[in-house]
Amino acid sequence: MPQTIISLSTRGAGLYEFTHEAEAFVHKSGLEEGLLTVFVRHTSCSLLIQENADPDVRRDLDQFFKRLVPPSTDPSMRWIIHTAEGPDDMPAHIKAALTQVSIGIPLSGGRLMLGTWQGLYLFEHRDRQHRREIVLHLGR
Amino acid sequence: MPQTIISLSTRGAGLYEFTHEAEAFVHKSGLEEGLLTVFVRHTSCSLLIQENADPDVRRDLDQFFKRLVPPSTDPSMRWIIHTAEGPDDMPAHIKAALTQVSIGIPLSGGRLMLGTWQGLYLFEHRDRQHRREIVLHLGR
Amino acid sequence: MPQTIISLSTRGAGLYEFTHEAEAFVHKSGLEEGLLTVFVRHTSCSLLIQENADPDVRRDLDQFFKRLVPPSTDPSMRWIIHTAEGPDDMPAHIKAALTQVSIGIPLSGGRLMLGTWQGLYLFEHRDRQHRREIVLHLGR
């Protein structure tokens, strides 16, 4: 079964689209029917399928998660113990837990069965630059 | 590999069960062992496996998400930018991000390996009527 | 396709690791490439891939969810209807809805493609002791 690892460079928290990379991998495989499994190999970023039309949706999503889980320096987050890797680290783990580490997308006629407005995103929760690995696995 | 799209009509926010439709599809396939992947083709509704016994559980679940993510007209949500599609639209995207877009359920002896109290639900987050597409994919 | 059910005993809310059990199952199967699907057969506990290094991460995660969804006896949770099974029951369903019921992890060279810091956990949301069933399914 075809499998690959794609690598994304992130420059701060937010959503990074990789729908095209996933579609290109599916196309190259020549597989008509099957299941694409997307898996992210980290615990401070996650996966999300979201609207690919209005960029404000992504901005609002990022904003919601920042408000729900503020940095550990925020007075409301004083209970956090794991602060050694910076004020955005533990909130990043929490945001990752609230979203998804893997997503399965069925194929039909050689194409991902995404809805019209669905895009595939890496949701970065750390502030600094990171290199993130995503596994794409095509199965039956 | 067998695959189908089921279509559900929703009449406002809440949980809509489709366990029977999924079981019927599995039964019809004749497959004994395998994996059912459920995928929803929208970004303002999502998937959930939850208790199928007491309907109050579904009511409380819906209530929790409404309180965690109120409409964008709510004073606490003034920061939302994406309001063009109505006050329930951006909260719907957020609730979808907090739940799941795909779920994998293994089969054994031709049946979904759901626990005794597990039902399969579409979680609608929009107020108006919608027609929602769910992909069912049976693989190995 | 190989499949098994593993059973975990939990003693109160928190994260219980089962990475080794999953790896042992994959190793025993002899499969080199494929996809492991993990599915939990309950609605008041869930699955999580999280950092396996600093145990404080797990403590903080558990703490966050307890603060976001306090017991139904908490004044802020008076709106909960489903209280018959105890003050930790409905919050457990909510926490399960906010995390994941199934996770797919690709295999390569006979090993799970987990990142260096990723561990596989059952996230127990109930206070009392429970016996929890997790399905492991290896597919192509």
Secondary structure layout plus pairing:
Three copies of one chain form a homotrimer.
Chain A: E1 3-11, E2 14-17, H1 19-29, E3 34-40, E4 45-51, H2 55-68, H3 89-98, E5 102-108, E6 111-112, E7 118-124, E8 129-139
Provide a descriptive summary of the structure in words.
The structure is a homotrimer of 140-residue chains. The first copy, chain A, is an alpha+beta fold and 140 residues long. Chain A has a single domain (3-139), classed as Jelly Rolls, CATH 2.60.120.460. The first copy, chain A, is built from three helices and eight strands; from the N terminus they run E-E-H-E-E-H-H-E-E-E-E. Chain A has helices at residues 19-29, 55-68, 89-98, and strands spanning 3-11, 14-17, 34-40, 45-51, 102-108, 111-112, 118-124, 129-139. The mean pLDDT of chain A is 97. Chain A binds chain B through residues 33-35, 48-51, 54, 56-57, 59-61, 63-64, 67-68, 98-100, 103-106, 108, 113-115, 117-118, 139-140, and chain B through 1, 3, 37, 39, 41-43, 68-69, 79-82, 84, 90, 93-94, 96-98, 100-102, 104, 133, 135, 137, 139-140.
